[in-house]
Specification:
By secondary structure, this protein is α/β, with parallel strands linked by helices. It is built from three helices and five strands, in the order E-E-H-H-E-H-E-E. The chain has a single domain, classed as D-tyrosyl-tRNA(Tyr) deacylase (D-tyrosyl-trna(Tyr) Deacylase, Chain: A), CATH 3.50.80.10. It has a five-stranded mixed sheet. Strand 3, helix 3 and strand 4 form a beta-alpha-beta unit. The protein is globular and about 40 Å long. The model has no long low-confidence stretch (mean pLDDT 97).
Length: 141
């Protein structure tokens, strides 16, 4: 699994003009990509890492501050544009594999007590955010 994590002061996601997920205050916007060999164990490890990642002010984590997370699936994180001008998506897991694993990350965070908002899997989404810092990390589990 691959995640792009951004420290934000606010973030939201809209589908067809309707807000489907939104967080306010310090928190994390997380774009999550799934590849073919990912598992529910990797989803749990990613959730643990996100919940305890000391990325917020004063080296605090979401767990320390009960800060919210906005989780959005993004298969394009496994795009490969090393050859030519058109990316390939072969490394991205298909929807029936990826969707349950993104949901597993969300549920694992919620089991830990996290406040989690989400996008809508497979939809065309408009994501808005205010990146704080800016701070952006790429995580792989």
């Amino acid at each position: 699994m691959r995640a792009v994590v951004q420290r934000v002061t606010e973030a939201s996601v809209k589908v067809s003009g309707r807000t489907v997920g939104e967080i306010k205050g310090p928190g994390l916007l997380v774009l999550v990509g799934v590849t073919h060999d990912d598992t529910s164990e990797k989803a749990d490890r990613l959730a643990e890492k996100l919940w305890n990642l000391r990325l917020l002010d004063d080296e605090k984590s979401c767990a320390d501050l009960n800060a919210p997370l906005l989780i959005i699936s993004q298969f394009t994180l496994y795009g490969d544009a090393r050859k030519g001008r058109r990316p390939t998506w072969q490394a991205a897991a298909p929807g029936p594999v990826a969707e349950p694993l993104v949901n597993a990350v969300v549920e694992a965070l919620r089991r830990r007590g996290a406040r989690v908002e989400t996008g809508q899997f497979g939809a065309h989404m408009l994501v808005s955010l205010v990146n704080d810092g800016p701070v952006t990390l790429i995580l792989e589990v």
